[in-house]
Design brief:
about 25% helix; Nitrilase/N-carbamoyl-D-aminoacid amidohydrolase; 4 helices; two-stranded antiparallel ribbon; four-stranded mixed β-sheet; 6 strands; alpha+beta; single chain
């Protein structure tokens, strides 16, 4: 994904539906709430590299988990962050179980699939 793509849920959803487990997103600015939503709604990890001023407490260079929580974040301008993630460890949501495994089966029908 690239920058403004975070504002549109379809971009992350399409990547996840095609098998992405980790999505990288270079971004200038960006809403952290949207980042959390893209992770949680698609069951993916996301890695953000930003040019935002850290003092603004807006989007930060960070690694987010499948639940939409930052697991590592930059605390200085120009800092590199790393996090080890286990792609084999499913994320279980209360009442939903492994949500990622249910996305293809339960997601709304896409227009392309309706014409088949």
């Amino acid at each position: 994904m690239i920058c403004y793509d975070v504002f549109f849920p379809e971009v992350a959803r399409e990547l996840a539906m095609n098998g992405a487990e980790v999505i990288a997103l270079p971004i200038w600015g960006g809403n952290p709430s949207l980042a959390a939503a893209r992770c949680a709604e698609n069951g993916v990890f996301m890695v953000f590299s930003t040019y935002s001023d850290l003092e603004s407490n807006w989007m930060k260079t960070a690694v987010w988990n499948r639940e939409g929580v930052r697991v590592e974040e930059a605390d200085q301008w120009g800092t590199i962050v790393m996090a080890e993630v286990d792609l084999n460890q499913p994320t279980h949501w209360q009442f939903l179980g492994n949500f990622r495994s249910r996305i293809k089966r339960e997601a709304p029908i896409r227009k392309a699939e309706m014409t088949r």
